[in-house]
Amino acid sequence: MSTRNVARFWECGKKIICVGRNYAEHAKELKNELPTEPVLFLKPPTAYVKEGSPILVPHYSSNLHHEVELGVVVGKAGRDIPQTSAMQHVAGYALCLDMTARDVQDQCKAKGLPWTLAKAFDTSCPVSDFIPKERIPDPARVELWLRVNNVIRQRGSTAQMIFSVPCLISYISGVMALEEGDLILTGTPKGVGAVNEHDELQAGIEGVINMTFTVGRQAFTSSDI
Ligand SMILES: O=C([O-])CC(=O)C(=O)O
Ligand SMILES: [Mg+2]
After folding, report:
1. Ligand 1 atom closest to Cα of 185?
2. Which pLDDT tens digit goes with each residue over 209-222?
3. Which atom of ligand 1 sits closest to the CA of residue 23?
4. Domains plus CATH for the chain?
5. Is the CB of 154 under 6 A from ligand 1?
6. Residue 165 near residue 22 (C-beta atoms within 8 A)
7. Which of 118, 119, 124 shows the shortest CA–CA distance to 104?
8. For the segment 158-203, what is each residue's pLDDT rounded down to a tens digit?
9. What is the DSSP string of 9-45?
10. Sheet with 151-157, edge to edge strand ranges
């Protein structure tokens, strides 16, 4: 894959690997135990949405939550990657939202079912433009923020992550091969909450990038895509 294609990672059709409960304060706010190893789940490439298109509340949910996260874009494929060379596999970053149907996730948790319906629906992965690696010299020093209708909801530093970016790359690549254009969502800091139709959602990485999305509602109609 060319550098140009990695820069348009959302068009590559590659996988999105998400990490849950990677910030202690967020694990606590949802009354979850702190993980002893990374919690992983996946989103399909159809989850991507870019600025200019709305985030859609799934037709089967009435409690859509925002989660602002640092995304890591893979630039070099690998399997069983050691932590010491993990950063060589990073092409760059993206500001990401892990949109979550919290009511559906709660039902999945109660029934012991996977989180797919809660996390993998169309538009569940809003992303910024590609951020070249040089613009973020240290992924453990990134300040994330998120506002809904101009009110600050989330603010956190990636310094608070339980598992670092090199640790996550090493762990994930021991489970599944990482490929160029894959995206890793590294977990959300505290402050998650609901968004509703017509809300305006703004998120940013301090001093690097910001993005704006509006919220709409998914219609349950058959259509060609
Ligand atoms: O749904 C959750 O709370 C897990 C998750 O994605 C996160 O911690 O970022
Ligand atoms: Mg998340």
Report:
1. 9
2. 999 999 999 988 88
3. 8
4. 3-141+157-194 (3.90.850.10)
5. no
6. no
7. 118
8. 999 999 999 999 999 999 999 999 999 999 999 999 999 999 999 9
9. GGGTT--EEEEES-BHHHHHHTT-PPPSS-EEEEE-G
10. 55-57, 209-217, 200-205, 143-148, 151-157
Question: Would you state the structure tokens that stand for residue 212, as one six-digit string?
Answer: 């704006």
Tell how far the Cα of 36 is from the centroid of ligand 1, in angstroms: 15
**What percent of the chain clears pLDDT 90, i.e. is strictly above it?**
93
Q: What is the mean pLDDT of the chain?
A: 96
Which ligand 1 atom sits closest to the C-alpha of 41?
A: 6
Sign for the CA dihedral angle at 20, 110, 31, 205 comes to: positive
**What global pTM score does this model have?**
0.97
pLDDT at 5: 74
Tokens of 122: 């169309």
Residue with tokens 């319906």: 117
| 223: its two tokens | 């259509």
The protein residue with its alpha carbon nearest to ligand 1, atom 5, reads: 20
